[in-house]
Design a protein that fits this description.
Blueprint: H1 3-12, E1 17-21, H2 26-36, E2 40-45, E3 56-59, H3 62-70, H4 73-78, E4 85-89, E5 95-99, H5 101-105, E6 113-116, H6 117-128, E7 133-136, E8 140-144, E9 151-155, E10 160-163, E11 165-168, H7 175-181, E12 188-201, E13 209-215, E14 218-224, E15 230-238, H8 250-260, H9 268-277, E16 282-289, E17 295-296, E18 299-301, H10 304-307, H11 316-331, H12 336-355, H13 370-383
Parallel strand pairs: 1-2, 1-11, 2-7, 4-13, 11-18
Antiparallel strand pairs: 3-6, 4-5, 8-9, 9-10, 12-15, 12-16, 13-14, 14-15, 17-18
Helix pairs in contact: 2-6, 2-11, 3-11, 11-12
Length: 407
């Protein structure tokens, strides 16, 4: 059957049904494009509501064209944070260097966007909520493809439904991936760091800037996204092996971070105290997901579930947006087998280029030895006199095709 015949067949038969697990970035973006190409889409999200607020994220390069085609670019431009300065401090809290953020991140001033995560998820949700079914406070419990005619899904809440296709957009620790491919450890690439993120009162007079304190193997950062009363606080530290015993135990996380930073100076004691009381603490290892394939049968993965690049690249949200566009478009006029093959064929090189950005930019900001920290500080002093960068080629390495709509 030719692609033209398949397109004609799709238009004359009932709408294909799709279930997406995850309503953060990749999930709603995929829902938008699948709906555009004629699918009846359901999104299941384990949280009771969309998560508001959140730390700042970047939309760069090819991903900017995705949000433009979705019609949400003006909304995101209005929400742009406009970070103006990155200031680095030594052990005593004295300034080492102050640089333009784009010089380090590879962003393009006046084009690339930095927004609160909640602003992006709100924009994505608003773009699809009237056309897509959302099931909050639920999640996938089991998947069964044995019938060969679809995917039988049992939800945690007890409901059972059958879908033509299922997609895992449920993040770094994807339950869908675990069901489909097995334990996370076989795809998890730990990068040697852990971090804790939370919000605290902005008693520092910071505005539209990041201030980062470093000693070898440790970093503390305060990120003020505007002139409001709160800042995002980050405590990052090197650790040879991931602390698996702490990942599911918030008190163990707090204890571990407090022990690592017990003798730290500057504002770190106050940050540790705020972490103890924070109700939005997020703790994890810095890691990537690397998989030899992103689909099995009628189920496919997208975003962090398939190819998390780690926050060291600053490309997680951009990869999720581009991956969602490419996955949905690859299915617009193909069956699932051909569509999933096309998705991987046309997207994997872009993903790999961006995952390989680890070691550039942000990854050099957390040296683990005194000598490496001295080299980094010398680099920062040189950068402070340089103009902003013109972007990294990896961020725009994929030119988006114009897929054929089926609606």
């Amino acid at each position: 059957m030719s692609r033209t015949d398949l397109l004609r067949d799709v238009r004359s038969t009932p709408r294909r049904t799709a279930l997406i697990s995850g309503a953060s970035v990749a999930g709603p973006a995929l829902a938008f494009w699948l709906n555009r190409y004629g699918f009846a889409v359901t999104v299941v999200e384990k949280s009771g509501t969309l998560r508001a607020g959140g730390y700042p994220i970047d939309v760069r390069g090819t991903a900017l064209e995705v949000v433009r085609r979705m019609g949400i670019l003006p909304q995101l431009q209005d929400a742009h944070i406009d970070l103006r300065r990155l200031t680095f401090l030594d052990r005593a809290g004295k300034e080492v260097a102050s640089v333009n953020p784009h010089t380090l991140t590879g962003g393009v001033a006046g084009q690339d966007l930095e927004v609160r995560r909640g602003d992006l998820t709100d924009a994505l949700y608003a773009a699809v909520r009237d056309d897509v079914e959302f099931m909050f406070d639920d999640s996938i419990d089991t998947l069964d493809q044995s019938s060969g005619e679809g995917v039988d899904v049992t939800f945690r809440g007890g409901r059972r439904r059958t879908f033509d296709l299922v997609f895992g957009a449920d993040g770094l620790h994807s339950r869908t991936r675990e069901i489909l491919f097995g334990p996370e450890e076989q795809f998890h690439r730990y990068l040697g760091y852990c971090f804790a993120g939370f919000t605290m009162r902005n008693t520092f007079g910071l505005s539209h800037e990041v201030t980062m304190w470093n000693t070898p193997g440790r970093a503390a950062a305060l990120y003020a996204v505007g002139d409001n009363d709160d800042v995002h606080a980050f405590l990052n530290f090197a650790r040879p092996e991931p602390p698996f015993d702490a990942f599911r135990n918030p008190e163990a996380q707090r204890d571990l971070v407090a022990a690592v930073f017990a003798d730290a100076g500057w504002e770190v004691p106050g940050m540790v105290a705020a972490m103890r009381d924070a109700d939005d603490l997020f703790f994890d290892g810095v890691s990537q997901i690397r998989m030899p394939r992103w689909s099995s049968g009628r189920v496919a993965l997208v975003g962090d579930a398939a190819y998390a690049p780690s926050f060291l690249t600053g490309q997680g949200s951009s990869l999720a947006l581009v991956g969602a566009y490419m996955l949905a478009g690859s299915l617009a006029d193909r069956d699932h087998a051909a569509g999933f093959t096309a998705y991987e064929h046309h997207t994997r090189e872009f993903v790999t280029l961006n995952q390989d950005q680890v070691g550039a930019g942000d990854a050099t900001l957390f040296p683990t030895t005194a000598r490496a920290l001295e080299r980094r500080n010398a680099m920062l002093r040189n950068l402070s006199a340089m103009p902003p960068a013109e972007g990294r080629p990896a961020h725009s390495a994929l030119s988006l095709p114009a897929f054929m709509p089926v609606t």
